[in-house]
Every structure is written in C-alpha cells, then in structure tokens.
Amino acid sequence: MSRIVIGAGIRGSHVVVDRVEGKVNAAIEKYGVDKAVGLPNTAYYLPTIYGITGIKVETLGDMPAIIKKCRELLAEVPAEDCWLPYLGPGLDSGMATAFAFDLEEALKYLEDPCPYLASKEDPEETDPDIWLGAADDIILRKRGVEFVDGSAPGFAAIVGAAKDVETAIKIAKELQEKSIYVFMASHSPNGVSFAQQLVEGGVQIGWNTRLVPFGYDHSAAIHAIGFAVKAALTFGGKTPGDHVNVLKYIKNRIFAFILALDEVVDEQYAAACGAINFAVPVIADTDFPEVLPTGVCTYEHVVTNIPQEEIVTKGIEVRGLKITVSKIDIPVSYGPAFEGERIKKDAMHVELGGPKSMGFEFAYSKPLDEVEDGKFTVVGPDMKDVEAGGLLPIGIWIELAGRKFQEDFEPILERQCHHLLNGAEGVLHIGQRDIVWMRVSKKAFDAGFTLKNFGTILHAKMHNEFGAIVDKVQVTIYTEEEKVKELLEVARKTWVQRDNRLADMIDETTDTFYSCTLCQSFAPTHVCVVTPERPGLCGAYNWLDCRASYEINPHGPNQPIEKGDTIDERLGKWKGVDEFVVPASGNAFESFAAYSIMEDPMTSCGCFEAIGACLFAANAIMVVDRDYTGETPCGMPFSTLAGTVGGGLQTPGFVGISKFYVGSKKFISAEGGIKRLAWLPKALKEASKEMIDKRGEEIGIPNFYDMIATEENGCTEEEVMAFMTEVGHPALEMDPLM
Amino acid sequence: MAFAAVSEKYSGKMREMEVGAGDKKVLVGGQASMPFCSFDGDLGNKPIIAMEVYDVVDPEWPAAVVDPFKDVINDPVAWAKKNVEDYGAKMICLQLLGTDPNGENRDADYAADLTKKVAEAISVPLMVWGSGNVEKDGEVLAKICETCAGMNLLIGPAVEENYKKIAATALGYGHCVVSQSPIDVNMAKQMNILIGNLGLPLEKIIMEPSTGALGYGVEYTYSVMERISLAALSQNDEKMQCPMINDMGKECWKSREVKLTDVEEPAFGPDMEKRGVLWEAMTAIDMLLSGSNLLIMRNPHAVKLTEEIIDELM
Questions:
Q1: B186/A586 Cβ within 8 A
Q2: What domains does chain B contain, in order, with CATH numbers?
Q3: Phi and psi dihedrals of A582, rounded to 5?
Q4: What ipTM describes this predicted complex?
Q5: In this model, does residue A205 exceed pLDDT 80?
Q6: How confident is the model over A655-667, as pLDDT tens digits?
Q7: Using the beta-carbon criterion (under 8 Å), do B187 and A521 form an inter-chain contact?
Q8: B217 touches chain A (CB under 8 A)
Q9: Which CATH number is A509-733's, of 1.10.1760.20, 3.40.1470.10, 3.40.50.300, 2.60.120.380?
C-alpha cells in the first residue's frame, strides 16, 4: 500500500479544506448567513454531504458546520517513518475533501456570472463556456435509469488531460462505443482539460453524447460523485445519512472509475482518496506507487503507469465492469430460428473441417493481461480465397479471461460454440472438440460473411450470455493445415487433462453439491441433487455444469448445497442435503439418499435418460433407457415405468437416472453397485461397453459385461434368472434386496 | 364425537400492492389463505377487475364486445370514462395495441400522451399494457413512466427480454410493474428476483403467469398459479409472495367458440353474446379459484357476473 499516495492525499485534503473554509467565510461576509445556497433544481441539497451525513445545506449559515465536520475527519499527514496502516485516515481525509468540494461547487452558483450552464443537457456554440456543472434531478432520473437497466454499464470520470487531442478523441470514442458515460472535470498542471481537448477536436459534448463536461476546477469532479449518490437515493431508495448503504449501493450498482491523465497534484490525490470511499478506483497514466490490495473497491484501488492507449481497458477491468454487445456485427441474420438450418452441398461456399479434412475448436483461459478483448484474426486462407464448394481445415482458437473465470468453465464455454455459431444464418456447425464440421452458405458469403465473423459471434454471445464469468474474448481462426495440426495436438493434451480432472473428482472430497429444480414447473416436488459422481438424471447437467450455471445465474435453478455432516456414508445421506431438500420439495420429502434405490431414493421428474428398477426375485436390478420400447423383466415397458416413477415422487425400488451414472462408482452403491446389474437393453449395453468393462475390472470381474442379460436373453424375470445362473452372476450371491 | 373442522395453517402471506396515487389508490392482494377459504385465514383484499380500453380495436372483435362501447370505441379517453361511470370499473387497463410495429406502429410519444389523458380523465387507477412486442414495449412503457411520473400506474408486461428497461424506469418514476413469465413457476420466481435486483421493491410487482382462456390452456395457468400460491403460503417463499394478475380478456374474446355463429356450429345455439360472456366469466372464475388478485376483462356483463360471484364468496 502506498504511504506516498495516501500522504499526498491527506496533505491535499488540508489544503482543500483550508481554502474552502476561507471561501465560505468570505461568502458569509458578503451575502450573510441567511443567503440560500444550493445546486439547481434538485431535492437532494448538496448531494454528497446530504447522502452521506443526512445534513441539508440550504443556506450559507449551514456551511460552517460542514467545515467543522471536515476538520474532524482530516487526519495528520503520516510521518516519513510511520508504517502504521493509513488507509483509514486517508479515506476519512478523502471524505473531508469530498464535502469541501461539494461546498465549493455550491458557492459557484452564487457567482455572477455563474460559471455553469445550469440545467442544460448540452453546451451550445452560443454559450459562453462549455461547463455544465451539477446534473439536476430531471437529468438524473433520465440518465440514472440507464445505469439501473444496464444500458449504461457505468461512468468514467476523467480528470486532467490526454497527451494530445487525438488521444483524447480516441479515449472518448472507446468509452462511447461501450456506452460508458464520460464525466469530465479538472485540468492538467499546464491548464489543459480533457473536455476542451474534445471540443478542439470537433467532438460534440454533452449528456446526449455521454461526454459530460462538469467543470474546469478539480472540485468539479464532485459532481460525478454527487450523481452516484443521487442515484443511490433515487433508485436505491436509500435514506440520506445511511452512509453504509449509500456507499454499498454505489459500489454494487454504479460502476465508476477515474482515469487520471497527466501529472497528479496533491489536491487530486485528495480527491482520489475521496473517490475510493465510493469504491471508485483510480487508474493513472503517470508513474507513482499503486494502492493494490482489495477492500473498499471491488478490486485494486489505485493502478498507475498505464499508457493512455490502454487506460480504458484497464479501467473497465479494475472496476469489474461488464460489457454487453447489443448487436452482433455480422452481415447475416442471427437468432435461434437459424439453429436448425441445414446447408446442402450445392448451397455451400465452403466446408470447414469434417470427415474430408480436419476441424477442431478449443477454448481456454489465460491471465487478463494476455487476452485482447474483441481481437479476431484469421491465419490462413479466408472464404474469398477458395472456390465455391471448396474445403478448408479449421481450428477455432478461443482465448478467454475473466476475474471470476475458473479453469473448470473452459469445457462448458467450449461446448457453447455449437449453439452460438449455429445461430448465424448460413452457418452450419456439427460436432465438438476435434470432430468439428462446418459449412458456410453461398448466400452468407455473398452477403459479406468472412471467417473473422466467427470471432464476432463468439465474442458478442459469450459476453452477453456468460458475462458473469467472462471479461475478455479473443478468437483466432486457423485454416492452414500445418498450423491446425500443430494446435490440435496442444488442444488434445488439454482435453485429456480435463477428462482426467473430472474423473478424479469424488463425492467424498467435495463439500458442495448442487441442486437442480429446473423441472419443478411440471414436477413441483422434484429436486435433483447433483454430485460429482451422480449427474442429474436427465444426463444434461453434471456437477461442473451446475456449478457454472450457478456462477452465471445465481438466482437460477442450480443452487449450491453445503453437504454438511455425513448421516450415512453407505446410503449417501448428508445433513446439509436433507436440510435443503425439505423446503425445496415443498415439504414433500424429508431425506434423500444419493446412492440407494431402496431407501429414500431421489425423486424423478420426467426427464430421466433411463430408469433403474429392482428385480426382487433375481435379487438384482435392471436399467432401461428411453429408446427401448419393448417389454422389460420388471413387467413394464419404459413408458409405463416412466409414469410410475416420474412426477416428483420417491418410489423405493425404482429410480430415474442418467445413462452415465451406470458407470459411476456410486451407482446404487448402497445396494452393492453395478454388481447388481443383471439386465440392459442391447443397444444401451453396447453403447455402455467401455464404461461397464472399466467397472468390471475395478470390481474384479473383468468379464462382467458378458453377465448382463439383454432382450435377446429374455424379457421376463424368470428368463433373466436362468441367464444369471448360467453365467454365475454375482447378484445371486449378494444380500437380499429386501 | 363432535365434528372438528380441519383448518390448513399457512406460514406465508401475499404482499399487498398499492396501485394509483392519492384518492385513486386501491389495494391488491394481501391474502393469507388459498382463494375463498376464509376458514383457513385472511382473504385479503377483494379481487379487482380492470376493464380494458384499446387505443386500436381489432376489426375481428365479435359484436358482444363492440356493442357495449359502440359510441366510444374510437375514443379511448371516453371509453375509459364510460367503463368507470356506466359500468362501474374499479380499474382501467389501457391496451396499447396500436404501438405494435407489426400493426399501426404508433410511437412512444403518442402512447405517453394518450396514457396521461386517460389517467387524468378517470377517477380510478390505471394500468397500461404494451402490445407484446418486447423491444417496442420497452421503449413505449419507459416513455409512459417518464410522462406519468408519480401517478403510480401499473405497467407491463415486463418479460425476460425487456424487464430491465421497464422496471428501471418504473423505479425511477414511481410505478408498479407486471412481471410476466412463460407459464413456468421457476421463471415466475426468477423474474421477481431479477426485477427486485434492479431495486424495485417486491411490493411493486405483480405476476402474470401467462394466461390461457377456457379451452385454451386454462388448466395449465390454473396449475401454475396454484403452485405459486402454495409456494407463497405454505413454503413462505418470499420471492413468490407477489400478487397475481391475468391478462385474460383478449384471450377469451379471440377464442374460436365465442366467434362461431350458430350457422357454422348449430350446437352452440344463436345467443353469441351469452356464450361469450359466460366464456369470459368462467375463465375469470377459474383464475380467481387459483389465486388471482387482478383480472383484465372486456365485456361489462361478464365483469358484473364475476363481481357478483366474488361478492357471494367473500
């Protein structure tokens, strides 16, 4: 933490408060204590003072009390050899600066002529100056709504000046493109202000272009804070003086950061200390010590030495601001209606990957500063470089970064490529990982679609749908065979690691499971409890999916369940799970056993991939999947079974499961696990061979696969029992099921 | 042994919502029992029926819903007044069908101006309903919020695609919001959470679970509403304790059964008006029995019939 920054801030605070006290006394002398004072057209008095303290400053006579408050807040400048914590005193002094600035700006409205174009949205050429001063309540409501509904993701307060007019325009434009408001105040040591630079460059400024010139003095920066405070009072319904909640609201809802351009003077350090109180971090282009540890702000407090070209990106990152892309900038239509579109051979301009070539897609995460958001590159020939009906290999290389991103989300985002790219009209996408097969239609090519547009789509959609975890998306499309080959090997290595990581996860070492209540719309008492070794019964949600779903949408149907103390290890019962299940099932159930088909089995909605059912005479169980329509040894076909098991009921002897669960070590482990399995439909058995063989090895019966009967061996319990006896099925020797 | 009546105990209670400002204010919801089960708990405020007024009338409307408004059907302000003064409407629902970009595509300024005129002309609270085009509704309803600041209108429907814009402006200018979800309990809850997260208090939200008319999915709506009621009352799920509304008039009066003549379907008989009125009233009763607090209805006779039944039951 920087004692130098805080020290300068405290020093600056003293200067500001001294100066403002002088100005207040002079004003009282000139106009008297009863002289009304305030900002134009507002019900919030001097908003920063009012919001934080609840004190209404209505006349000059109210001001000395505020100066007194400032004096109480001002700290001593820490001595050179003081190593005690000083962030607290720094923050207090910063707040004193904020109050003093609020008073100083209010006094400006007594001046004749007033330096501000009061209650105006945009300065006009005929106006004597460009400065607008405080936003009145009408502007606040109109613009504040954009902060609430997210159409304005936040504001950047720019103090000082850019190194030249061109850079100023570039910075402003970059912020405008992201719909971020730019609040401009203060000036550089040589007297230049950012707003004046924009005017010089012919840029239209004002509320309507989101480039708002507040004022030339350092004190005018308080109007940015005032705007945030008024938003907390108006939209957050916070009580003036309830400073904790006002500050919290601003931290969580009004995403603001300060870009300090050019040399920073003591008074600006003081203002920065003030801003940190409001969780507004400072990003500076000059080099001075940083204030990095998080605490008051969401992430770092003061970040320095950032080149002006990169300062906007850094500001967005440090404030944790989420960018949404309102329109996907591609020359073809985009929407779910195009997802099912097929592109026939004669309609396609190019085929990418697929059986005749090589195609893969790969998403992985990198540190934030190694990913350039919105950068799309094509390495190798593009669509225009091939004849109609041509063929290219393809490697879609997606680099992701995010403050909240976790390695485990990589495969989940990678899997989205299919759904996201298919949404474009004239684009067909099949497969995943290294079996990607794509086509782009002639029509799309004629409309101007290029391979770069894959990047445009992935960037926009990932930001919009996964903004909670993704901050940066960079996409490179490779179409050179050598390069595709080379990178595919890199990707393959990672895929193996990913598969192993998931395979290594076990319930015992995991503290948090996830619920899934997505199906409660039609099965109101149904709750899935998803553990690493027991995926959701629909097969669509494993534990990682649920965790990602929760991160992306914390209010959705997947909620974390702290499993808590173990009630019964064999059955798979935990205190935390039972406590969750009771209210979540509408008091219908008191306990769930994750690993049992007989005792408190989990409920089944209607989406199960397969059903496990007991064959009591055979002392075994059978599993039947949705695709098998024939009779089964338990006497019911799948459809009848589904009616019995589904609808959010606990039905001992029956349980809805995912196909994948059969290969889990926790597959009805309370009843002895896979050793009980005596019957499967032939197609399902064949599809699950690898999984069953692996489990056979693990349980010491390498030929277990051959001990499982199918419809070819019989569809009655007697026939299954006869088969079991013939092959010496282990279930015959096990404890009775009942 | 003496007879002991069984009584269901509920731990939760629906919120009470205030619509309208000043002396136009009415209270909606607030029940602590399932509908009309006064032996189980407090029934809260009587369900309210808001009568519809359209800015543009579909030429397909059957006579039964044109005749009662014949003299005012092209003048929404007069129509609203007639509903209140002649038919005793306790609330008006202004349906802004004319703003639909696929129809007349009237702009937000027009809608805001009309809304203000209607609101000022009537002595009861006003609800404003968009055309159902998510993008346009966001724009139109936001403008209305701004123009009618402080009137505490009920505006909607806010859906997943446009709730931010609608709820944020409602919050900024002091209005209530209808949160509409696609006939799904989870989504209904999620919408309340999402809107609540913007800062709009749950006291200012009413849920529209997507309404199907009699013969057109009424049972599905019924089940979802019953589920919501039970979650709110039995499970004390505070995110589900917002009152409920049904936009049902338009659903009833576009059904095939109210439009068929006895020439096309002799078994239905010649009295199309009676058939339509009963169709709308029956749908209304179904909604009330599953927990509705506010109904949007069209025909004055159907409204009267429904209100009589409410009075008998409460």
A1: no
A2: 16-313 (3.20.20.20)
A3: -55, -60
A4: 0.79
A5: yes
A6: 999 999 999 999 9
A7: yes
A8: no
A9: 3.40.1470.10
